[in-house]
Every structure is written in structure tokens, then in C-alpha cells.
Amino acid sequence: MGVAGCxxxxxxxxxxxxxxxxxxxxxxxxxxxxxxGRAVLDFLLAEVENLxxxxxxxxxxxxxxxxxxxxxxxxxxSRFPLEMKFxxxxxxxxxxxxxxxxxxKFGGRxxxxxxxxxxxxxxxxxxxxxxxxxxGFGNARAVENAFSRICMRQADRLRSERRRxxxxxxxxxxxxxxTGPQPTNALRNSTSWGKLQGLVGLSSxxxxxxxxxxxxxxxxxxxxxxxxxxxxxxNRVFSGSPxxxxxxxxxxxxxxxxxxxxxxxxxxxVKNPSDFVGAAMGQSEQQTRxxxxxxxxxxxVIDEACGLYGGGGTQGGGTTDPYRTAVIDTIVAEVQSTPxxxxxxxxxxxxxxxxxxxxxxxxxxxRRFPLASAFVFEDFDNNDxxxxxxxxxxxxxxxxxxxxxxxxxxxxxxxxxxxNFGNAGEIDILLDQAKGSHQKRLxxxxxxxxxTLGAVDFDVDFERMQxxxxxxxxxxxxxxxxxxxxxxxxxxxxxxRTSKRLGMDPKGQVPFNFLFRGPPxxxxxSTARKMGKVFMxxxxxxxxxxxxxxxxxxxGQFVGQTGPKVQQLLDKALGRxxxxxxxxxxxxxxxAKEALDELVDAVTKxxxxxxxxxxxxxxxxxxxxxxxxNPGMTSRFPETIDxxxxxxxxxxxxxxxxxxxQKQRLKGPKGDxxxxxxxxxxxxxxxxxxxxxDGLSKQTSWASARDVETLAKDVxxxxxxxxxxxxxxxxxxxxxxxxxxxxKMLHERHGREKQVSHQLTTGVADLSLLSxxxxxxxxxxxxxxxxxxxxxxxxxxxxxxxxSSPEPDIRxxxxxxxxxxxxxxxxxxxxxxxxxxxxxxxxxxxxxETKKTADDGELDRIMGELIEEENRRRQEAEAxxxxxxxxxxxxxxxxxxxxxxxxxAGGSHFVRxxxxx
Length: 917
What we know:
Rossmann fold, 7 domains, five-stranded parallel sheet, Helicase, Ruva Protein, domain 3, 9% strand, alpha/beta
């Protein structure tokens, strides 16, 4: 109409001598949805004052909206000083309105069971009165809508009775017409209730629905005796894992409510969070109000409702999303969850995410949708999955053998350990893969069954459990020094088989958390990978993959980030092996300790317990120290597997096997690898190699198998460089090549440790007074003859031949100054011990010379004495190094071994062996 139309209307009223202008739903003029509405208000504001005494203006509207209307201009309250509030009708008034409408429509001829003022009409009025005080309550209009539903029920009854050959009275309203059928009778005729009962599993959900229906039946009985009804809300939270039937049950639940007459419409509307969220400020509220207004009398299902929570973030430092927050605030304001609401709102989502959302959003949401009364959808057990599999196979026109179905359930059972297990949805994925495999086998002629799926279609390696007895030794084939680990894993397999035979759950008998203690290169990572395969074959893990990480991956960068980071990593590792290398770093720093505390807490939660294998790896002393940081660590990680450095014999065996694998890859017309010196070693070569490996193993940087693999690569590369162009295709690995590379690695490692030792002791003591370092193991003989095949072009002589320079003479200087206060007896004994040390050095050098010309029998004896002497020398050298670092002798004299301990060369300082332990 606009300003012009409004002016015309006023002129017509004035032409008739004045009158009343009634503007209904006046608030629409200020809502912004009416073009020109605000201009009309500004025009009326002036006309109301100018036409006082000639025209009466009446503005009508709903209370809440009119408050916004009067806020448009401060002049409105003064120009409309009289306010008349119309209260909602009480139950008695609603009853009289119902009576008048019945008499009006049927001219007073309609009879009502128990009378127009009787029990059943009072029940109708009382039900209508439960909506009193809520926004949108229609009062007389609500009575009119209720009367329409009564007439519809009467029409359905009359039609049904006539079909049965009866002659009903058309002018009579019965108890069922007025109050609806009894809940039990309604359920008996409800197809939706039958669908719910026919669903597989969902026992807890069915019990919850049954309890709700019991409440409805009890209220019906209480209404019949006019007792207060039990208050309850139709709004519910459906929480559960993916694929558990939340959306399906939500639709059925809504239709059951309609069948019971609790909702005026039979429509179920499904929405997602994106349907509520707007693109600009204010749009989220507008869209949410629109959806809620459109679902009055219906069931509104908000699927993935946790998507309405936009805060937190996986890193623990996110901010809330104002657009999503506005949706929740609007739902809280519009959905009151009061008895008699003609609308049912269902929030669907995953349990953990819903709980997080309810804890962090508007507190009113938890009052309107209490989690305590939520319908919890549990994961399907194996029996339920078997039934669902049968049902889906039938629907898709396929069959499966009993063995295939058993294998399919085993695959699904392993998949439970993966994050977000899809339950029934997982069956669809598995069936798609099985049908693809079956189609491939069918096209290759490997099966004649056109519609029958076999076990191999669900799992190519479905016989793994039957082969588990021999699986572990085969898995570790070629691995040196793993007998104890094989025995441990075989013991777990025996426990699993026995537990299953006795009907027990084997998960409670087999550990899932381990400590791997040992130096680097001892097989911790490779063993973790093999454990993943073993645990998957036992049915505990969904995958044999290993998630390899370090302590850094668990530690946050700021306060509040570490906990979510640990949980995120554990979620990622579900169904797999989580190997945390260098775990001892979790003992250092506040954030690291927070990560350790979170890990200790998480491993006992149902979400992670028995769903992944957690391995903490590191050096023995460091892991032991880590166990003392948190008292709960020991009980959470009760199983310890110790890894030891390979002994010299195992190192030589591993070197041979590694090069043999290279030989297998190389074998053919293009080349070959001659490993005769390793596969059929001479006695002298074997002893030389063992002594060099023994020397390497004493170095702190020795990495066992990893360094042996590096050595194998170096030996092979030397052989490659020695293969001349046109000189054949056979790569020869000679004794000189192997021993030369061993000596080269020993020189390098020993040089590194000397440099580190020098840096540690600089400024502490005069190193010239300390005993020289222990000589490296020498070879038993010199290889004077060399073949051209083993000498790489351009290679240095030192790369292939061990050095023949004489060993340094290890002697103690006995010209040290005698400290004051040292008795003659002590000084004399000290000189004797220093002299004895020099004599032992001479004997050692003599044995080194003798072994070069000794025969095989004498050689074994000399080698045994040399090894024993070198062990003693290394122990004493380490003791002297520690004494020098301790500063017990301020002058820095050398330390001389005596009975029961060490005394400095000055004589005044003595340290017992017990103090060195």
C-alpha cells in the first residue's frame, strides 16, 4: 500500500466523519520484510497526533514482535498510551470454545460421549492448554485445529465401520474420536513400529523407545482419571558410531510419534548443519528460524549435529565460529522442549563429538536435549553384522559360502580397530570389494559360481590363522639373533588359540603395550613391523602397518596443545602399531611430561585399549629412567623386550647373508658375486674378522645390524670398482677387501670417539699423563699377495691392507713427584705396581709378535690370551678415563692399578674398585 495508499485510506475515513483504523500484525512494518514499511510508520507517527479526536488507530500483534516494533521510534509509546494485553485462554475457556464450535458446525445435533462438558472433552481442552504461554500458541485457532483432527478421526472410524458392515451414528463423537486411540492400539496398527522391531540389533535403542512409549501409555491412563501427566519431551539426542542406523531410526521414531497422535503432521525432515549456517552475520539466525517455523507439527532431524560446533580445533587453540554459534543460540531460544510441543527435534552425531559440543556451547542446549536421556546406538556385534551381511547379500542378489561369511566377519572384526569403524556401512564397502574380486576371478575362469562369493573374495590371505604356527619363524627368516623374540610371539599365538578354544576373549590375555630397550641397529623397528603382521594375523589389528614417530610428534609448542596432539596421534594409529622412537625424550621438559601423562591416561581408555599396539623404544638406561618419571608407566607398559648388540660371530654371519641376498639379485647372465671367502672362510681370516668385529662392537657408536648393512654395501662397492671393463662379469669379494673395510670402519669410529673424549677432558687433566688408548685389534697375518680383481682402480693401499705399524708402547712414567705425606710403604708398592704394568705391556707386545708365526694349535691359545688381555686393558682404560674426568687427583697424574683399586702416580689419592662400580 505504501505511504500513498495509507494516505488515501485516512482520507476515506475522514470523508465518512472519522472512524477506527485497525492495523493487524503491525510489527511487519518494521521487520524489514515489508517494502516501504518504515516509511509508512514515519508517516503514521505524524498523522496519529494530527488526527487526534477524529480517527482512532489500533495496532495489533504478538507480544514479542510488538516490543521490537515500538523500539523503531521512541515516539510510539507516547502516541499509543493505551495498551491492552490479551491473555491466553485457560482450560475452562478452551472447553467452552470447543463446545461452541461443535454446536456451531453441527447445529447442536452432534452428541458427544460423556457430554460436551464430560471427561473426554476436558481431556482435549487440557491437552490444548499445555501449549499455553509458548510462542505461537493459537488459543481459539488451536481449538479449531484440534476440532478438525477430531472430525478426521471420526471420518476414518465411520469409514472403517461401514466397511465391516456396521451402521454407525454419523452424529456422535466417541472417546477415540476425541482423545485418539490408546497408545497400545496405535502401535499395533503402526507399520513404523514394526519396522523398528525388525531392525537388526539396536537393543538399547529399542528399549529406550519402549520406555518412552510406556510413559505415553501411563499418561493416557492418568488422563482418564484426571491426574497430572508425567512430563517429558519429544526432543532427543541420537549418539553413536557411523553406520549404526541413527538416521534410519530417527525417521522411524518420528513416524511412530505421528502414529501415536503426538504430532500434527506426519512428515520427517532431515537437515545438515550447512542448511542452518549463513554466509553473513544474521543469516544463520534467519535460516534457523525459518527451518524451525517450517517444521512445526513435524520431526526435524539434524544429522551430524556436532558440525554445529565450530570451536576448539584439533590443536587445542581454535576460536569459536560465530555463524555456527548463532545457530545453536537460536535453537536454544526457539526450542523450549516443553510438554505438548507440536514439534520433535532430533540431534544426531558421534558420542565423543556431541559431548564436546554440549560442554562448550550455550548451556541451554543440554537442558533442552539432555544427554542422560539420549538414545545410544552401540556398535553392532559380530552376530548382528552376520545378519546384516545376509540381508544385504539377499537384497543385492548374491550368495556367499559359510566360509566366506565367516571370513567376512573376521575382516570386519579387525576393521573395528580402525578409527570411525563404519558398522553396517563397512559391510557395503567390503561387499563392493568382494564383488569386484569375484568378477575378476569370474573373467579369468577361476570360478564357475556366477552369484556365489567365496572366502578369497573377502580376504585373499584368509588362511593366515591356519598358518600361524609356522608364520613367525618364516617372518623372521634371515634375521640374526631373534630366537627370544620368536619365542615370545609364538607364546602369544598359543595364548590366543587356547583362549578361543575355551571361549575366552584373547584380548585380555595378550599385552598391547611394550618397551623395546637396546642400542641402535639391533632390530627394534624391524621387529615392530613384524609384530604388526603377527597381531593382525591374530585378529587384533586392522593393518600390519607401523606408524613410526618420535617424541617430537607428541609434544606441543604451547600450553594446551600437547594433549590434543597425543590424542590425534593415537587416533591416527588405531588398528596399527605405534612405535615411539627415542621415547626417553618424554622425560625432559614440562610439555614432554604433559605428553607422557596424556599417554599414560589414554592407554587405559576403552577407545585405545586393545585397539593398537604401542611400543616405546630407546636405550636401556634411558627407558628405565623414563619409567620413573610417571608412576603409572610401569603398570601400563608391563612387557619389556631387550635388544642386544650382535656378537662378532653374528655380525660375520649377517654380513655373509646380506651379501648373499645381493648375489641373488645379481645372479644371471649379466653378472655374479664370488663370496667364497665368506661362505668358506679360512681359520685365520675368520679369527681376524671376529677380532675386528669385536673391536667395533666396543665402540659406543656401533649400530650392530645397521652398520653391518653399511659394511656390506662398502664391500660390494669396492668389488664393483675393482671390476675392470671387459674383464668379466664376476665380482670377487676377497679376504683383503672384507678385512680392509672392517679396519677402515674401526679406524674411523675409534677416531671419532678419541675426538669426543678429548673434548670432554679438555681443561680437566693433562692427558699426557694418562695411559695411551688401547690399540685396535691387529690382524693375524699380512696378505702380501693381492689379485688384480680385488684392487679397485685408483684406490689407496690403506683402504685394503691393515696397517702394519708397530703398536704404541703402553708404559707408565715412573718419574712422578712423590706427594707429601705418602709413606715409604705406599710409595714402594706403587712403584712395584707401575713396574708390573710395564711388564704386562711387554708380554702383550711379545704375544702380538708370536702369533704371526704360530701354528693353528698354538694360535688358538694365543688368541684366547690376547682377547682376555685386551678386555682387561679396555676396562682399565675406561676406569682411568672416568678417574681423570672426576678430578680426584688435582695434579692430573696417571692412575696406576693396584690391589682393590687405583692410586694416582703421586701416591696420595686412592679410589677403590667399589667406588668405580
